Amino acid sequence: MVRRLNPAATFHREQVEAREFDLVDIAESALRLHDVKLRRHGITVERNFRSPVASYGFGSKILQVFSNLILNAVAAVPAESDRLSICVEVQGESVQVTIADNGEGISDEFAAQLLNLT
User: Fold this and answer.
1) Residues in the chain with pLDDT values less than 50
2) What is the pLDDT of residue 103?
3) DSSP sequence for 44-112
4) Model pLDDT, residue 14
5) Do residues 78 and 103 make contact, with C-beta atoms less than 8 angstroms apart?
6) CATH code: domain of residue 44
7) Phi and psi (nearest 5°) for 21?
8) Which domain covers residue 88, as residue numbers?
9) In whole angstroms, what is the distance from residue 99 CA to residue 40 CA?
């Protein structure tokens, strides 16, 4: 039996050097990786992006971040109205990526500790 590899699987290989990649492709790959889980939990995904959005760096690391945020959303969204939104937008010479859900969010007490590195 011959199986075609999911294009997202190629991002799992460790990159040894930074290179150009499309952030929209990375976002779509992360969604494909978790498609079954998203559908099983009844999560509606809203995509707000236009391809391509070129960036330079380590695409495999960005995929890992997107993947973790999607999995966090799966765990956090309320069962009655599961929603996940992914937005990739160019703002001048920068790119803003937003991955949002309608879960409760992080408590103020814990949020204050998140970036406290001392």
Assistant:
1) 1-11
2) 80
3) EEEEE--S--EEEE-HHHHHHHHHHHHHHHHHHS-TTS-EEEEEEEEETTEEEEEEEESS----HHHHH
4) 65
5) yes
6) 3.30.565.10
7) -150, 165
8) 18-114
9) 19
Tokens representing 85 are: 């939104």
* Nearest by Cα to 28 from 10, 13, 15, 16: 10
Read off the pTM. 0.78
Do the domain assignments include residue 82? yes
Q: How many domains does the chain have?
A: 1
Q: What is the CA radius of gyration of the chain?
A: 16
| Alpha-carbon span 43 to 64, nearest angstrom | 20
Structure tokens that stand for 42 in this block: 């009844």
Domain contains 101: yes
Q: Is residue 32 part of a domain?
A: yes
Residue 99 pairs in a beta bridge with 86
- Domain-located, residue 5: no
What pLDDT, on the 0 to 100 scale, is given for residue 66?
96
- Tell me what pLDDT residue 3 has: 41
Instruction: State how far the Cα of 103 lies from the Cα of 26, in Å rounded to an integer.
Output: 23
